[in-house]
Amino acid sequence: MAVHGREDYTRFTATLPLISGHKGAIQDLDFSPFHENMLSTCSTDGSVKIWMIPEGGLTANVSACDADLKGHAKKVMLMKWHPTSEFTLASSSMDGAVKIWDVQNENS
């Protein structure tokens, strides 16, 4: 997955830095409404990951996340940051579970 600024309207090269920490396909992603550089992703590998994108953007490929939220037994299909609670994230998976995460207190 590539991440770039919304004001970048140029053609990108094939060497664009990528985020590649999941073992399965990324199903959903969401930027925090409180921290513009905090990105969450969820995947078919059953995990939710938190990534801190550097202020100037990615300069190299990234495979190590800042937090790895584990607890789902099957594919995580959707997740969303809470609009008014700063560090709260919800995720749902194919195991029928909905998890509410306090990412400020989770260990990676």
Strand content: 35-45%
**Chain-averaged pLDDT:** 87
Order of helices and strands: EEEEEEE
**Percent in helix:** under 10%
Q: Name the structural class.
A: mainly beta
Strands of the widest sheet, in order across it, are: 1-2-3-4
Question: For the terminal residues, how far apart are their CA atoms?
Answer: 21 Å
Low-confidence stretches: none
Total strands: 7
Number of domains: 1
Layout of helices and strands:
Layout: E1 26-31, E2 38-43, E3 47-52, E4 67-70, E5 76-81, E6 88-93, E7 98-102
Antiparallel strand pairs: 1-2, 2-3, 3-4, 5-6, 6-7
Mind explaining what this structure looks like?
The chain has 108 residues and is an all-beta fold. The protein has one domain (26-102). 0% of the residues lie in helices and 36% in strands. It has no helices and 7 strands. The chain has strands at residues 26-31, 38-43, 47-52, 67-70, 76-81, 88-93, 98-102. Strands 1-2-3-4 form a 4-stranded antiparallel beta sheet, with no helix packed on it. Strands 5-6-7 form a 3-stranded antiparallel beta sheet, with no helix packed on it. The radius of gyration is 14 Å and the shape is globular. 22% of the residues are buried.
Task: Fill in the keyword field for this structure.
globular, mainly beta, 3-stranded antiparallel beta sheet, about 110 residues
Quick structural summary:
By secondary structure, this protein is an all-beta fold. It contains no helices and seven strands.
